[in-house]
Specification:
This protein has one domain. Helix content is about 85%, strand content about 0%. The two termini are about 30 Å apart. The protein has 17 helices and no strands.
């Protein structure tokens, strides 16, 4: 797509049609990513004929998810920060700064990923002990085996998040979809082969995940050289205050959202482990992965709106930003009501597919049903956050991004179990969702009324 044609396409195509066109590839990408993220949990739960070993392995994957969430947080920080800015620059016809931001965001992600990989492997033992407080010795050993390999893939994971988001913000969602799907297919092929075929257990799951990430990275990097997509260049890397500030401003909401998700998972695992040991950790981990898979369609839908939002805001077409916001909130809420209803009814069957431990299944079913009740609220929460982030309102976007997984969730997970025991753990996220809606929607409205 030529540059002028791209701007015409992004600013003149009817908003609903444009959002749907851009969101279909991102919805597919997010759902496939969620499926392959869940694949580790599914196959790890079958590493042994002994249920206790399977429960420990499943719990270990849940514990390491905290580390993966932190790596993802840094990847989204660089990807959303650079992607938001370059999209606004393309909308304003400032192609020089768009090109420089793309390469700078990519370089920053590689540097940070290498640092995380080295430091994480040096301190893997204390990190595993910290994550697994309340877990059994077997779970801790599984956690260390899984985490060592996952950390090696940190630079590739972060870099692929950056390229994926930059492609989306340019309106090239198709290339972003292809890159993620190639990695997902690689992961899903290797998971059963390494875990069950070669009997590599949790190490096999970690290797499959890293190989999937490397595959996505390579395919996405090739995608940047296609058509009018911005191409990576060392000469365009400028790690100066101007670009670092813009990455921080645009990426801080993602860093807060993902970073607090990691902290919340840590607090959740610790609380669940202290009340119900490995079975509770495993049950909450499975419920969380299932919810993530259900919410992936919403995230993909919102990501289809983001380039429309930032590009048109940069071009001064705020009415299109507002129209897109209303469209996304309305239809995402309707779809989430349907998804939540189905998942609530079939919760026992869904959780049982990932765990055979009756205690873990009981916890997972209760947690999933609580979260299904408030799932429809996620539409307004997520779209509000994405709109604020895409138009460069970093402070408000950071607050709304922090609400669901941090500001509202952490108090709930600390307070409710004191009075309600394991039920308090199971319902904490649902309660946080209700509170988060009252934070996110007023923040979004305060900006929309200015348009």
């Amino acid at each position: 797509m030529a540059t002028n044609n791209r701007k015409e396409y992004m600013t003149q195509t009817p908003v609903p049609k444009l959002i749907l066109t851009l969101s279909v590839p991102t919805i597919i990408s997010m759902m496939v990513t969620a499926i392959y993220n869940t694949a580790d949990t599914f196959f790890v739960a079958r590493v042994s004929d002994i249920d206790a070993v399977n429960t420990s392995a499943t719990a270990a994957v849940g514990l390491v998810f905290t580390v993966m969430a932190l790596v993802q947080a840094m990847g989204f920080f660089c990807g959303h920060g650079s992607g938001n800015y370059l999209s606004r620059m393309l909308g304003a016809d400032n192609h020089k700064e768009a090109n420089e931001m793309a390469s700078t965001g990519f370089a920053l992600a590689i540097i940070l990923g290498i640092v995380i990989a080295i430091v994480g492997n040096i301190f893997v033992n204390p990190i595993a002990a910290f994550l697994g407080r309340g877990a059994t010795d077997l779970t801790i050993e599984f956690t260390k085996s899984y985490m060592r390999i996952i950390l090696i893939g940190a630079p590739f994971m972060m870099a692929q998040f950056v390229i994926n988001n930059q492609l989306r913000f340019q309106g090239a969602a198709y290339y972003a979809m292809i890159g993620l799907m190639c990695g997902a297919v690689m992961n899903m092929i290797l998971d059963p082969l390494l875990i069950m075929g070669f009997h590599m257990g949790v190490r096999g799951a970690a290797i499959a995940t890293v190989m999937g990430q490397m595959t996505s990275f390579i395919v996405l990097l090739i995608g940047t050289s296609k058509g009018e997509n911005i191409k990576m260049s060392v000469s365009n890397v400028h790690l100066n205050w101007h670009y670092i500030y813009e990455i921080i401003n645009g990426g801080a909401p993602s860093l807060f959202r993902q970073g607090l998700a990691a902290i919340s998972t840590l607090v959740l695992n610790y609380t669940a482990g202290s009340i119900g040991s490995d079975a509770a950790i495993a049950g909450m981990s499975v419920a969380g992965k299932v919810l993530m898979m259900m919410a992936s369609a919403l995230i993909g839908f919102g990501q289809g709106y983001q380039p429309v939002c930032s590009f048109n805001y940069g071009a001064g077409l705020t009415n299109r930003v507002k129209e897109g916001f209303k469209f996304c909130v309305k239809y995402s809420t309707i779809v989430l009501i349907g998804i939540g209803t189905v998942a609530f009814i079939f919760a026992p069957n869904i959780i049982a597919a990932f765990s055979k431990d009756p205690a873990a299944v009981q916890v997972g079913v209760a947690a999933l049903r609580f979260q299904c009740c408030t799932l429809p609220l996620s539409g307004a929460i997520v779209i509000s956050n994405m709109m604020l982030q895409s138009i460069g309102k970093g402070v408000k976007a950071s607050i709304t991004a922090s609400a669901r997984n941090g500001i509202c969730f952490i108090p709930m997970i600390l307070i409710l179990p004191v009075f309600l025991g394991i039920t308090g753990v199971e319902m904490a996220q649902a309660c946080a969702d209700v509170l988060a809606m009252f934070v996110a929607v007023p923040m979004a409205y305060s900006e929309l009324k200015k348009f």
